[in-house]
Design a protein that fits this description.
Layout: E1 5-14, E2 17-27, E3 32-36, H1 43-50, E4 58-63, E5 66-67, H2 73-79, E6 81-84, H3 96-103, H4 112-122, H5 124-128, H6 139-151, E7 157-161, H7 169-184, E8 188-192, H8 196-202, E9 205-210, E10 213-219, H9 220-225, H10 227-234
Amino acid sequence: MTTMLKIEGVHTFYGQIEALKGVDLEIKPGEIVTLIGANGAGKSTLLMSVFGKPQARRGRILFEGQDITRVPAHEIVRLGIAQSPEGRRIFARMTVYENLQMGALPTDGETFEQDIRTVFDLFPRLEERRTQRGGTLSGGEQQMLAIGRALMSKPRLLLLDEPSLGLAPLVVRQIFDIIKKINEAGVTVFLVEQNAFHALKLAHRGYVMVNGVITLTGPGRELLENPEIRAAYLEGGH
């Protein structure tokens, strides 16, 4: 199977602080791959490095064989990658509909209504709230909106950064069910998540990051049964 996203020996810095220390990771088309680790391990930095903010100082990031390490973020979206960022970052004063418009590519005028229909089919709650301002939505609805906005650019690879953060357990289950549906519809998913149980249960493969270094990798279910992972992240850990 070919590789969709390949991260090779990536070192990323914030000033003099090395946040990623030679990360290697790959994602194949059609997979859900999850990256788990404690707070501050460098998970979000890796996702942001794909979009060049911050840019990898050493190493390469390849998307479908093309080196995108130095490609501007707006061009990366056009290539077929979208991101739902940590903390949702929706436009609070804009309506749900306007937020979704912001996610569409300028060239997608002809398919816009069809694309928004796809998002509403996935998130019926958003259709009910289409004229409501983003800032007045519940946490779960805002997370749905952040994912829906990312899907408006019709990505082949969707990056999700901590989609369960701060949500009630019932809503977390809903969000993970939706991620599964998105993947079944043909979108490859790279999921960064502190909720190791849900993430590994869902993922085809997983990676574990500690202090900017990948320490373990394997099938999601296998990692879920790993005693070290259970002790660190599942049994009273994170």
